[in-house]
Structure formats: structure tokens, C-alpha cells
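Support request, please re-run this one:
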Amino acid sequence: MKYVMLFAEGQPGEIGRKIPVIFPNELVHREVAAMFVQCLSRHGYSNLRVESAGFITLKDARVHGKSESLGIEISPGDAVTILSYDWLHGL
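Re-run finished. Output below.
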């Protein structure tokens, strides 16, 4: 599986949040990131950017590699963010 890690800045007085998106290998990092940035922008998220991207092995939540289409690599904390997202909502 592939993933992109988006970051959305919070409103004044709010903290920003990371938003992981996991998707099949058949899709392209750059296109998925662009689609989610556009969609989330329409729903009140601001200053969205892609922080990292790569591949994830869901069995053990191990992240590896990089996105060729975006030209960015994984971040070592991505697996922790993905695993804790349900509880912390990316905060």
C-alpha cells in the first residue's frame, strides 16, 4: 500500500493536524495528494501540504521508500501517526 501524510494548519488558537491517506499501489502519490488537498480545502482545512509519502506494510505498520512523483520521502514518525490517528486524530 502507498500513503501520503498531509498537514493542515489550524485556525488561530488551534493546533495543526496530520492527516494520513492510505491507498492501493495502483494509484499515483501525486494525484491522490492533489485530490485530497482539493477535497479537504473545500471542507474548511487550510494551508494543506504534503509532509511525507511512501509505502506502508499494513501487517506491521512499517513505512519505507519514497514517492517518485512527489519527490519526497517517508518521515520516521509516520507509522506512529498512522497507528495513533483513531485516538488522537492526527494531533
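The first strand starts at residue 2 and ends at 9. Residues 2-88 form one domain.
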